[in-house]
From TrEMBL, chain A:
InterPro entries: AAA+_ATPase (IPR003593), ABC_transporter-like_ATP-bd (IPR003439), ABC_transporter-like_CS (IPR017871), P-loop_NTPase (IPR027417), PstB-like (IPR005670). It comes from the Bacteria. Residues 5-247 form the ABC transporter domain. Pfam families: ABC_tran. The gene is pstB. Keywords: ATP-binding, Nucleotide-binding, Translocase, Transport. SMART domains: AAA. This is Phosphate ABC transporter ATP-binding protein PstB. One of its GO terms (molecular function) is ATP binding. Signal peptide: none annotated.
Amino acid sequence: MAKRIDVSGLTAYYGSHKAIEDISMTVEPRSVTAFIGPSGCGKSTFLRTLNRMHEVTSGGRVEGKVLLDDEDLYGHGIDPVSVRREVGMVFQRPNPFPTMSIFDNVAAGLRLNGKYKKNELQDVVEKSLKGANLWNEVKDRLNKPGSGLSGGQQQRLCIARAIAVEPNVLLMDEPCSALDPISTLAIEDLIGELKERFTIVIVTHNMQQAARVSDRTAFFNLSAVGQPGRLIEIDDTERIFSNPSVQATEDYISGRFG
Amino acid sequence: MDISTQKTDQAPPPTAPPTTTEQKRAARGATRPGDRIFLGLSRGSGILLLAIMAAIAGFLAYRASLAISKDDANFLTAFEWNTGVIPPKFGIAVLAFGTVVSSVIAMVLAVPIAVAIALFLTHYAPRRLRSPISYVIDLLAAVPSIVYGLWGALILVPQMDGLFGWLDEYLGWTGIFSWDQGAPRSMLTVGILLAIMILPIITNVSREVFRQVPQMHEEAALALGATRWEVVRMSVLPFGRSGVISASMLGLGRALGETMAVATVLSPDFDIHASLLNPGGGTFAQNIASKFNEASEFGRDALIASGLVLFVITLLVNGAARAIIARRKEYSGANA
Amino acid sequence: MSHAVVNDKRPSTLRGASLPKWSPWAIAAGSIALAVVIGLAGGLDSRAQWGLIAGLLFLLGTYGIAARVEGRRQAKDRIATALVWVAFLIAIVPLASLIWATVQRGTKVLDVYFLTHSMGVVADSEAGGGIYHAIIGSLEQVGLATLIGAPIGILTAIYLVEYGRGNLARAVTFFVDVMTGIPSIVAGLFILSLMLMFDMQPFGFAGSLALAILMMPVVVRSTEEMLKLVPNELREASLALGIPKWRTILKVVVPTSIGGIITGVMLSVARIAGETAPVLLLVFGNPFINTNPFEGAQASLPLYIYQQYSQSAGSTAAYDRAWAASLTLIAFVMILNMVARGIARWKAPKTGR
C-alpha cells in the first residue's frame, strides 16, 4: 500500500507571492517524516502540495515535480481528485462532518465511490475505527453525531475517516496542536501503529513530538519575513536532534533561534 | 430593578476591574432620571410592538366575526363570494386553494433554481463575476412587486402562449396541463411570476448561508478525494440545509401574501379548476385587492375575514420555519 | 478481506481519462445549434422554448459524453456544474427582461413635464398627464411612516440588545419575527378595520400607519444586528468611567453602529416605498394633487402604476405612463439602496484591529 514520495525542485505560490522555493526530498514508504520549522516557513504549504490541496486556495499554484512511486502528481492529465484519494490528509483542527453520524463520517470516503454492501461498509468502518484506536469508545453510539465527541476523539475519528479509503500516504497537518496532552499521546501512539501500513508525513510545532514519533525530520526555514520558505536539511531524526549538519537547525532545535 | 443587577454584572471589564465607587455609581445609574426615561422609552417601544400585534389579531378577528356571523354559506367551504345579496353567501375555499396552488408552483420552481444560483455564486462562478452578480441580485430583491406585476401582465403573459400550447399538446392528457386556448392569465403564469419574484430573496439568504460553511468542512471532503459536486453534497448542503429551509419559508411567506402581482396577472373567477393553464381561481390577497373598491362596509368586513385566514396561514408558515430551524440546530455545524 | 474490496474498486492509476478544457463550450455551442435547428424545423415560435431545449440538450450532452469518457462520478460533477450554470442563465433571462422592459418603455414618456404635472382631468386613455401628485403622495406617506416606524424600531432594538433579558424581551423577539412575515395587505386590513370602526374616509396618513407597521420589524432586525456588532469592551470601558448607561448607549454604542442603522432604515424605506396593497385599501388614489396627508384621498407611485394598468382597458398611453412611473419608482428604490450600501461601506463598524 505505502508508496514513496520523491519531490524535486518544488516551488509554490499564492498568487504572486512565493511561499516555498525549490524543495527536493524523498519520503520513504512505511516511515514517519516530520516537518519542523518556525511559523510561516511554508511547511504546511509544502504538505498541502503533496496532495494538491494547495491549489484549492485561491491563487495557489505549483511548479516542480512530486512523484508518487514514479508518477508525477502534477503531470499532464492527472486528476487532482484521484490524487487526494491516494494521499489522505488530517487537519489541524478536527473537522468531522457536523451533520453526519460517526458511522457516516468514517464511511463518507467509501460512499463516494458508490456501491458498497451494507455489511462490507460495516466491516470497513469497524476496521478503520479500530485502526484509529477509537472503536471501543464509540462502538455503542455509531449513529450519534461526530461533533459530540471530545476533541481528541474527533481527531481520531478524522484519522479513521482518512484511513478508511486505504490511502497510500497520510499527511497530518499539526494534528495535535488543538488537543490536550493525553489526547496528544493517544494520537502519537496511533501514528506509531499506522506507519506499519502507510507512509506518514506530519507537520508539527512541537519538537519533542517530532523526536518521539518520526524516523526522519525535515527542517524548514525562511531567511526573512516575506521571503519564501526553504528546506534547510532532512536527515534521520536522531541525527537532526543530536548532531545536525547545518548550524541553523541546531540553533532552532536548541532554542537559540532568532 | 433587575436591570441594575445586570448592570453590575456587565460593568467590570475583564482587563481593568473598576473600583468599588465606580461599581456603585454604575449600579446607581439605573435610578438616574435619564436612565429611567431612556429605559422607559425603549421598553415602551417593545411593548408597543406587542400591542400592535395583539391589536392586529384582535381587530381583524372582531371585524371578521361581524361578517362571518351573518354568512349564510359555510365560510370555509363555500365556492362563492356574494356579499351584496341578502342573505350574504361567501366562503374562502377557492381562495385557499388558489393561494396554496400558486405558492406551491412558485416554491417548486424557485427553490431549486435559487439554491443553484446561490451555489453558483459561492462555489462555481469565476471569482471576478461573483460580486457584481451578487450585487445585481441584491438590487432585484428590492424591485417593488407592482413592477413585477406590470411586467408579468404585459411581457410575461404574451410569452406564455408557446409554453402552454406545448404543455397542452404533450401533457394535456393529465388534466392538470390541459388548455382551452384562453388568455394565459392562469395559476401557472401566476406561479411562474411569483417564482421570479421570490428568487432573489431565497438566493440572497442561501448565498449567505453557503458562504459561512467553514473552510475546514470543505477541506475534509476534498482530502477524501471528493469532486466539487461531492464537496457540495457532503459539506455545503448539509451545513446550509436549515438556512435554505428558512430562506424558502421567507419566500413562501412572500408568495402567500403577494397581492399586486397576482391581481395584475390573474384573470379570476370563483371556482376551482383542475387545469393550471386555464384562467380562473383566485388568492386571498388578490381577491381583497380586486373586490375592495366595490365592496360595501359589510363586504369589507367579509374581505377582512378572508385576510384573517391569510394572516393565520402566514403565522403558521413562519412558526413551522422557526421550529424546523430550532430542531436542526443541534445537528448543525455551529459547535464544530 | 474488505481490504481487497476497497482495493479493487479504486482506479489503479491517478490518470483518469478527461475531457479537454474547451469541452463545455463545445457542448454548449452544439446544443444551441441543435436547438435552433429543432426550433426552426418544429416551427416553435417562442424563443423561450428554444432556450429550454438548448438547456436540456446541454445537460443531456454533458452527462452522456462525460459518463462515457470520464466515468460516472466525473459525469455527476460535470452535470452539477452544468445545472448550476443553466439555472443561473434561466434566472437571468426574466430578470434582465424586467430591467430592459422598464427602461426601454419607461423612457418613452418620462420627461420633466411628466414629473411635474398631475393627472388632473386627463382621461385614462388619453396621452399626457404625469406623476407629480403621486410623487408628493409617496414622499409624504413614506416620510410619515419612517418618522413613526424608524424610532420605534430602533428603540425596540436598543431595548432587546442593551436591556432585554427575561420574558418581555423573549416575547418581543418572537413577535418581531412573526411581524416580519405579515403580508402587506393584512397590515392594510388592520388599519382598515380601525377606519371602519371610526367611520373614516381614506387619507394618506392611514397608509403611513400601515407602512410603518411593515417597516418596524425590518428596522428592529437590522438595528439589532448592528448593535450586536459593537464590542462589549466599548460599553464596559464607558460604564467603568462612570458614564450612565443611557449616555453610554447614546454616545458610544449608537454612534459606533450608526452607519449600519441608517443603512437598515434606508433599505426598509426602499421596501415600503414599493408597497401597493395597503395604499390601495387606505389611501384610495386621486388624480389631483393633494398635499395634505391627513385629509382626503391621495395618490402614490405604486398605486398610480396599478391604476394606470388596471383602469385603462388596454390604452397604450396609460401603459406608457405605468412604465414611466415604474422606472421612476425603481430609480428611487435603487438610489436608496445604493446610497444605503455606500453608507454601510463607508461607516462600517471598525471591529478588531
